[in-house]
Amino acid sequence: MLVLLKIGIIGIGNMGRIHARILSSMGLLSAIADTDFSRAESVAKTYGANPFDSYEAMLDEMDLDGVVISTPTRTHARIAQAIAENYDSVRGILIEKPLASTLDDAIRVARTLQQREIVAIVSHSEIYNPVVKRTLSLIHEGAVGEIRSVIHDRRGFVQPARIPSLGDVLEDIGVHDFDIMARLSHGPARLYAQCNTSEGVYNAATVIVKFDSGTEHVFHLSRQYVGRRRSMDVSGTKGTLFIDLFGQIIRVQDLDEEPLADGRAIRLPERGATIKVYGEPVQEVLNDFVRCIQSGERPRVNLDDGISALKIVEAARQSARTGKIVDIEI
């Protein structure tokens, strides 16, 4: 039963508070640790959990089944590795995206977690967005034929004070779309990236990935955009999909339809269809986390997915730094 699991949160910033709210609603939140004890205490009081000023103190005192790591990106791998090596009672670790700041760190911690058979999920929460799940199904079912191009648009604004804890735009928000790409297109490819820098950090980027198969993915990534945009535009040999990831709407149009043809149905993949799919991705991440701790099954976003996304991040960094095209394998 769900009530038998006890889960703690390490780091109670923006994402940590979301995890706390959802875990509390699931009856699973037992403890919260943050180096700012007053913050941990405040949130813990709201949800009836136990507050701690360090994850070590939390794990020494509490017999937890799982933990959520929602600390600054640069600490993800170090904390996950320390927990895996020192706390045998922990059966599952959920790591907020990305898995690590560097590919080397990601590979190192993944090896440890796999050797110790700890359930590990990387919270690429967009994969758990119902509209993304439905989009992937439609594409794999051939709703638009063979994919020719995909435009990924993920732009918004992040306060400059938060950027040091989040890392660059590629690891912070790019990993979501890089993971989606890896579920759509595979094989050898060539990558080219250009980035804009703010305070010495890549804060906006355009990344182009051209596969040897002919499929092209273009990524518009920015944390200095007024407003919020999260969308995908998929062009195939039979038609197109436009996906609004915020509104959770998919629009389908066949190539033989007029450009302004009205939608006539709500059941995909019928012609001219529009469907709205509701869901809270972080809730779905946590549902998967709990399910995998209980069953030992493979999560929808696993350590290999986290490593794969970081390989693309590092290739984009290399291209932006050198101004050259980089060969990669997806």
Counting helices, strands and paired strands, the structural category is alpha/beta
Count the helices. How many?
10
- What Rg do the Cα atoms give? 20 Å
Second-tier CATH architecture of the largest domain: 2-Layer Sandwich
Described by strand count, sense and barrel closure, the largest sheet is: 9 strands, mixed
Give the low-pLDDT segments. Answer: 261-272
Q: Kindly estimate the percentage of residues that lie in beta strands according to DSSP.
A: 25-35%
Helix content: 25-40%
CATH topology of the largest domain: Dihydrodipicolinate Reductase, domain 2
Look at the structure and give the mean pLDDT.
91
Strands, total number? 15
Elements, N to C (H/E) = EHEHEHEHEHEHEHHEEEEEEEHHE
Question: End-to-end span in angstroms?
Answer: 38 Å
What is the C-level CATH assignment of the largest domain? Alpha Beta
Anisotropy-based shape: globular
Within CATH, the superfamily of the largest domain carries the name: Dihydrodipicolinate Reductase, domain 2
Side-by-side strand order of the widest sheet: 14-13-12-11-7-10-9-8-15
Domains, number: 2
Itemize the secondary structure elements and their pairings.
Elements: E1 7-10, H1 14-25, E2 29-33, H2 37-47, E3 50-52, H3 55-61, E4 66-69, H4 76-86, E5 92-96, H5 103-115, E6 119-123, H6 130-140, E7 147-157, H7 163-166, H8 169-182, E8 188-198, E9 201-211, E10 216-222, E11 224-236, E12 239-244, E13 249-254, E14 274-276, H9 281-295, H10 303-322, E15 326-329
Parallel strand pairs: 1-2, 1-4, 2-3, 4-5, 5-6, 7-10
Antiparallel strand pairs: 7-11, 8-9, 8-15, 9-10, 11-12, 12-13, 13-14
Helix pairs in contact: 4-5, 5-10, 8-10
